[in-house]
UniProtKB/TrEMBL annotation, chain A:
Residues 1-27 form the signal peptide. It comes from Mesorhizobium onobrychidis. It holds the Pfam family DUF6152. This is DUF5666 domain-containing protein. InterPro entries: DUF6152 (IPR046150). Keywords: Signal.
UniProtKB/TrEMBL annotation, chain B:
It comes from Mesorhizobium onobrychidis. Keywords: Membrane, Transmembrane, Transmembrane helix. It comes from the Bacteria. This is DUF6644 domain-containing protein. The keyword Transmembrane applies.
Amino acid sequence: MQSPFNGVRSVALTAAVMLAAATAAYAHHGWSWTEEGFFELRGKITAIYIGNPHATLDVDAEGEVWRVDLAPPSRTIAAGFTEEVAKVGDEVTAIGHRSRDETEKWMKASRIIVNGKTYDVYPDRVPPA
Amino acid sequence: MDELLAGIEQLALVRALKASFVAYPIVNALHIMSIGALLTSVWLMDLRVLGAFRSLPYAAFTALLRRTAFAAFAGALVTGSLLFSVRASEYAAMPIFLTKMTLILLAGANFLVFMRRAKGGDEPADGTVTILAVLSLMLWTSVLFAGRFIGFLN
């Protein structure tokens, strides 16, 4: 076989480029993808998911559907927010941090208020009283 | 299709996994373990085909790694299906998920072509096999990257 490592070299280069691309696009785990300041969203719930890897709400705010990430299910349920306390169509206020990408209708909430009740899914990250 | 996906989400096992504090991270960890073993064995096997580690006997080395790769792929398939099942409709609608499935099919097809070419277990002396090995490396690595992106685009 002649000079097989030309192939290997191009594979290594491809892998390096892909790794760089992946690093640049890193987002949506933890809080690094969100803005610093608090953000508040009000709207109607269009979908509720309480489960792994983390709970989410879809919220219609003035015709725009937002994705609201909550905590992992165990933590979300421990905060009192279960499938029983809210339903599609309920008004919700979500307080947390929105995506740094302004084109993205996406936020991660530390507090949500539904039907007059407050649920702090990240109690250590709620706005000061 | 939508009904099938919604039905998967309602299976008793899937509902338990969806809310579990312990099971889901374990399945997730086993998936990572499987894909780590799969990628490692694929890389070593393909590099051997491309002429690396020539001191190691070709037939025995590739046979061992092929068995490892099969076991790892089976593990990745089972754990991946479980991870998929908790939000089946959402994942199935994601372009990045469909990209990953397409890449797996291409990698599988590439493997079948390779096996037809490399009968007998002797050191391949054929340029086509070199191309297939390089394709295999690129496809399986792309599967890994596509899979990782699922977690950041949903």
